[in-house]
Design a protein that fits this description.
With 258 residues, this protein is an alpha/beta fold. Helices cover 32% and strands 19% of the residues. It contains nine helices and ten strands. The protein is globular, with a radius of gyration of 21 Å. It starts with a strand and ends in a 5-residue tail after the last helix.
């Protein structure tokens, strides 16, 4: 193993309150902390915990392809690891959920012979389950990144919960400085293949501060194109049907009939 090491952590969704003790210790003990967070107060908190902390926000240049941005983040991180430093790379939310550079940095560091790990953290999905009172284990859950959902013909099961992430960046592959019109009508057209226009959906965004309420807007599917969609919004589509019951399987498993 090389002298350098990498620990990838997440700061959770809400300001500081969702940081785990394990993550806090990793930030405090690192020789160098690199971070990408959405809230300036979280940045201040990180820099107070560790004086050798710096933001990687400069890599998010308007018009720059996100893949290039992520590659630059990984390379800067690995340069510090190669220099023999204990590096902590911190991201907003969970560092392994919709965070390509989090996984890539760990993979590359290990390939180069360095110790690398990723710590668990509170994600937007955890907040969604709590705020909306949903149990993904009750009827099952389908979870897709929204743009990928449109590009790939994933099989949709209307009897299960459907969660589409990052609808606030629908169809965008580059960082933008100004708001870009979202092709929500295209998303509605795709969903209409499986759900009626009057089917209720939820536009959701978790609260960043403990004193705020989450953004929760319930509306018919057909009304989605006219909705105000926050940048970090998620679309939640409740089940529209009941799954058929396999009576023969119930008997084979010895389960009671309801």
């Amino acid at each position: 193993m090389g002298a350098g090491s990498l620990t990838v952590v997440g700061t959770g969704i809400q300001l500081v309150s969702q940081v785990t003790p394990q993550t806090r210790a990793a930030i405090e003990r690192a020789d160098e902390v690199l971070y990408v967070v959405t809230d300036p107060l979280t940045a201040v908190w990180i820099e107070r915990l560790n004086a050798n902390a710096r933001s990687l926000d400069r890599h998010y240049e308007p018009g720059r392809d996100r893949a290039e941005t992520y590659a630059a983040i990984v390379e800067e991180t690995l340069a510090a690891v190669r220099a023999g430093r204990r590096v902590c790379l911190a991201f907003y939310g969970h560092p392994g959920v919709f965070v390509d550079p989090g996984h890539e940095a760990v993979k590359r560091a290990r390939e180069e012979g360095f110790r690398a790990r990723m710590l668990p953290a509170v994600s937007a999905e955890d907040c969604l389950v709590s705020d909306l009172g949903l149990d993904p284990g009750e009827l099952g859950c389908q979870s897709y990144e929204a743009t990928a959902f449109l590009v790939y013909r994933y099989r949709v099961e209307p009897a299960a919960l459907l969660v589409l992430w990052q609808i606030g960046f629908l169809g965008q592959v580059a960082t933008t400085a100004d708001p870009v019109p979202l092709p929500l009508d295209v998303l509605v057209e795709r969903l209409s293949e499986h759900y009626p226009d009057e089917h209720d959906v939820v536009v959701y965004e978790a609260a960043v501060y403990p004193i705020l309420e989450p953004h929760v807007e319930r509306l018919p599917l057909a009304a989605l194109p006219a909705a105000e969609v926050p940048p970090m919004a998620t679309l939640v589509v409740p089940p529209a049907a009941r799954a058929p019951v396999d009576e023969a399987m119930i008997d084979r498993l010895g389960l009671p009939r309801r």
